Amino acid sequence: MNRLLIVSNRLPISITKQKGEYSFQRSAGGLATGVGSFYKSYESLWIGWPGVNVRKNNQKEKDEICEALSAEQCHPVFLSPYDIRNYYDGFCNNTIWPLFHYFNHFAEYDKHHWNVYKKVNESFCEAVLEVARPDDTIWVHDYHLMLLPQMLREELPDAAIGFFLHIPFPSYEIFRLLPWRKEILEGLLGSDLVGFHTYDYLRHFLSSIRRILGYEHTLGDVTVGNRTVRVDMFPMGIDYQQFAEAAESPAVQEEIQKAREQYGDRTIVLSFDRLDYTKGIPLRLEAFDTLLEKKPEYQGNVSLILVAVPSRTAIEQYQALKQQIDELVGRINGKYGTTEWLPVRYFYNYLPFEVLVANYKLADVALVTPLRDGMNLMAKEFVATKTEGKGVLILSEMAGAAPELGEAVIVNPSDRDAVMDAIETAMAMSEEEQSERNRIMQKRLQRYDITHWAADFINRLDDARLLQEKRSERILTAEMRRRLIADYGSSANRLILLDYDGTLVPFAAKPEKATPSSAAMDQLARLAAEPENEVVVISGRDRHTLESWFKTLDLSFIAEHGVWIKERGQAWMMPEALSSEWKEEIFPLLELYADRTPGAFVEEKEYSVVWHYRKADPVLGSLRAKELKDDLLHLTANLNIAVMEGNKVIEVKNAMINKGRAALHWTAKKPWEFIMAIGDDRTDEDLFEVLGESDYSLKVGQTASRARFNLPSQRDVLPLLRECTNCDEQRERGKAHKSEKKEKKESVTGSAPL
Ligand SMILES: O=P(O)(O)OC[C@H]1O[C@H](O[C@H]2O[C@H](CO)[C@@H](O)[C@H](O)[C@H]2O)[C@H](O)[C@@H](O)[C@@H]1O
Ligand SMILES: O=c1ccn([C@@H]2O[C@H](COP(=O)(O)OP(=O)(O)O)[C@@H](O)[C@H]2O)c(=O)[nH]1
Region Disordered: which residues (predicted)? Predict the structure, then answer.
């Protein structure tokens, strides 16, 4: 296993400085505790912010911190108070955090914060580059560093880079509000593997990259330029053993003992989170209030332990929330409290590990009702400590942990009555049922614990790298490219078959906009000018369009995928007798689908009809395309026509027509010394199929193909053709130069003897 570089905003250890002395604490939050529990079992280095402010010029202090952290396999990135204000409090926690948790009314879109976010991501990039070794696996974590994968990719093109998002990825409808949505997605796609906690977050991400960047995916594999990015889900686990064992430890037992003396045998409900508006603490308190009000028999018999861990205290919403909670607790305690009984025991601090476990172990019911939560490890930790079986977890359906913890009492956290009912259900549940439910969840948590989670991610990252390497094996290598050009240069006759859309020119939103560029015209002219070449543009376009675009060039054509062919200098002809009567029957159906799909339209050619959906909503478009294909198959069962899927088009045409059949007209003409065919979509596969093994067939794009090689993108086509003609022109210049020299020599010495 290669060395693992973990990169996150916060290191697992936070440093504080008091009276000139440093002290080290475990950082709060699931990322730090979760990843912190396994990273030392790897050869690893964790790069992140140590939580302490060091003056810019105080190199001595920085070196000391660096030294102290290196013993913990950590490497610091120092952030100034200005960075923390604008990047951490600003962009991370005042823009991304609320937006990604569906609190879009809290999100601020401040350009300055965004600029500092970019700058801090660059600082992290520099920090990684300082320590990275060639074979390191780099694993970037969370929303603070979403631009980093792409920054690293630019500097280290061959590095293995993974990214994991610990918070929800929101639906496209929310994500699209972000002014810098494109940059964020591009930043993430610098990775080889992007991971999420749940399937919902994953599909939201795929939908955003599809709608915003136009990238399709196949089972979570996204082709981005010449790379494949894999997207997958990995629900984060906990260090199960540590929690289960700690629950039995003497230190924890002692803490429980102390607490029991305070609470007697009252039922204990635990509410325990970072103080964050996403956690739904006020609603929870209100539900508890309603329970005591509506069911007075619980008064005096149940206590709510409310632990709120201070978090992001510089941010206004967090300060307001703190005040709201303080007031609610005061109100409930004032309303129902007696000299013997305080309904809510409220703690506003960070708890050391033993106290935390003692609280879990002590609680009869855990009330975990976030309004949104990426995962929520505390719910899992609570279950792990229930070694004797007893204890009920009430869990919000909005937590990422909910799909895995289905045996909990699942609630909608906004439904106060449902939360109140859930507390009652939990308190009334038989011990047998509690144990049974916990046993099932414990088994699951034990199996997919934090070590498994990390190993799973790293293995998938390795797989993604292998896939990447395999795909790139089919890409035309520099050596094969040289051979292709040498073969081109040494051949006395050559057949060159070139698809048009997606090959000679990029796609445009409307087909009529994809006219040939001057670069493409120029290059075709050069190819056609070489006497050894026969150049055939082989397209699905109608013959009139091709003719009008290329009338100045000496080319041959295949139009409508093979309905029409035209030898250079000759007239158009139809190699097969075809009928177009069927079009009348098909046309209304295609029009109906165009009407039902905004952005789609129908194109009619002489012997085929095409349904285009490039401009339609991508999801609706591909759904309708599937439905249309099904309908067409029924409708065309007795007609001699075929339905063919191309790039964002469904084409209906005569069954025997395809580019391969049409190309035979040229391939069979003579034994060509050099054949090259380039195409990008499904229709070009018929062409590749009729070519020989040693011919140069090239598929544009990285998807699987019958072609011998893949060219990464459409942008690579003209440069390749240019290299071919350059090599010929050079050779011609060489020949001319030689004969010029020979002529000069002859004019001096007289002609050579025969
Ligand atoms: O670093 P802070 O700003 O103090 O915040 C603490 C952490 O909060 C977030 O935790 C998330 O990660 C957990 C583990 O994957 C997950 O269970 C939880 O639902 C998330 O909210 C944040 O993502 C971390 O980066 C912070 O360090
Ligand atoms: O006083 C505390 C409060 C929380 N934690 C840890 O902080 C993490 C909180 O993670 P969670 O996923 O529940 O929520 P987050 O705070 O990351 O949103 C858990 O592993 C807790 O064990 C802790 O060690 N002491």
Answer: 728-754
Q: Which of 174, 208, 233 is the last residue of a domain?
A: 233
Ligand 1 atom at minimum distance from 370 CA = 19
**Which element (helix H / strand E) includes 314?**
none
Burial class (CB in 10 A: 0-12, 13-18, 19+), 134: exposed
- List the structure tokens of 523: 């290059």
Residue nearest to atom 23 of ligand 1 (CA): 166
Closest atom of ligand 1 to CA, residue 373 = 19
Q: Could you tell me if 529 and 594 lie in one domain?
A: no
Are 227 and 471 spatial neighbours (Cβ–Cβ below 8 Å)?
no
Q: Which of the listed residues 233, 262, 283 is the one where a domain comes to its end?
A: 233
Q: How far is the CA of 388 from the centre of ligand 2 (A)?
A: 23
Question: 299-334: per-residue pLDDT in tens?
Answer: 999 999 999 999 999 999 999 999 999 999 999 999
Hey, which residues does 601 pair with through a beta bridge?
A: 612
Residue from 364, 499, 680, 728 carrying the catalytic annotation:
499
Query: Which-ligand-closest: CA of 237?
Result: 1
Looking at the CA of residue 141, tell me the nearest atom of ligand 1.
25
Average per-residue pLDDT for the chain = 93
- Give me the residues of the chain with pLDDT under 50, please: 748-754
CA 374 to ligand 1 center in whole angstroms: 8
- pLDDT for 398 equals 98
Task: Tell me: do 130 and 22 sit in the same domain.
Answer: yes
DSSP-H helix ranges across 296-415: 316-336, 353-362, 377-385
Taking the CA of residue 375 as reference, the ligand 2 atom at the shortest distance is 12
| Cβ pair 572, 544 in contact under 8 A | no
Kindly provide the b/e burial profile for residues 454-472, where b requires at least 16 CB atoms within 10 angstroms of the residue's own CB.
bebbbebbbebbeebeebe
Residue 29 CA to residue 12 CA, distance in Å, equals: 9
What pLDDT score does 749 carry? 43
Cα distance between residue 124 and residue 140, in whole Å = 10
Cα gap 689→679, rounded to integer Å: 12
Task: Please choose from 37, 166, 396, 445 the residue to mutate so as to test ligand 1's pocket, defined by most ligand atoms within 8 A of CB.
Answer: 166
- Contact in structure between 311 and 318 (CB atoms under 8 Å): yes
How many residues are listed for the chain in this entry?
A: 754
What is the CA angle 461-197-46, rounded to 5?
55
* Cβ pair 362, 256 in contact under 8 A: yes
> Which pLDDT does position 747 carry in this prediction?
55
Whether 436 and 410 map to the same domain: the answer is yes
Task: Compute, in angstroms, the gap from residue 273 CA to the centroid of ligand 2.
Answer: 7
* Nearest listed ligand to the Cα of residue 101: 1
Q: Ligand 2 pocket test: which of 378, 385, 449, 450 has the largest number of ligand atoms within 8 Å of its C-beta?
A: 378
Q: Complex ipTM above 0.90?
A: yes
Helix axes 583-596, 618-635, angle to 10 degrees: 160
In testing the pocket of ligand 1, which one of 167, 169, 198 has its CB within 8 Å of the most ligand atoms? 167
Write the pLDDT tens digit of every residue in 479-504. Answer: 999 999 999 999 999 999 999 999 99
522 in catalytic set: no
Q: Which range marks the domain in which residue 292 is found? A: 240-447
Domain count, the chain: 4
CA 29 – ligand 1 centroid, Å: 5
Q: Tell me: the pLDDT tens digits for 600-619?
A: 999 998 999 999 999 999 98
CB 150 within 8 Å of CB 182: no
Determine which helix (DSSP H) or strand (DSSP E) holds 439, and give its type and residue range: helix 431-447
pLDDT at 30: 87
Instruction: Report if residue 463 sits inside a domain.
Output: no
